[in-house]
Amino acid sequence: MKINRSSSLRVFKKYQPRQIAKFAKGFFNGRIFIAGLGRFRIVEGKIVAYKNVSSEQKIRIAVSEMNKIVAELSQSKPASI
Questions:
Q1: Tell me, what CATH number does 43's domain have?
Q2: pTM
Q3: Is residue 55 part of a domain?
Q4: Which Pfam families does the entry link to (predicted)?
Q5: What is the span of the domain harbouring residue 40?
Q6: Per-residue tens of pLDDT for the chain, all 81 residues
C-alpha cells in the first residue's frame, strides 16, 4: 500500500463523528485535525491515528466510532421510489 503525501489539512473545531466520517469517505486520502483529540490521517477512506497517540483509549474509541460510520455510509442504499 503506497501512501501519497497530502499537503491538505482539514480542521474540525468540534468532534462531530458523522460530519468527519462524511468528509473522510469523500476525501479518501489526507490529514485532519480534531480539536480536543489531535491529528489523524485518512488512508483509503478510513481514519487512522498516528502511532504515537494510537495507544490512548479515547483516540481508539473515536477512530473506531468514525470508521464505523464511514462503513455505514458506504453501505447505505439509495431510497427506492
A1: 3.30.1910.10
A2: 0.77
A3: yes
A4: DUF1107
A5: 9-74
A6: 555 554 568 999 999 999 999 999 888 889 999 998 999 999 988 999 988 776 788 999 999 999 999 999 888 666 655
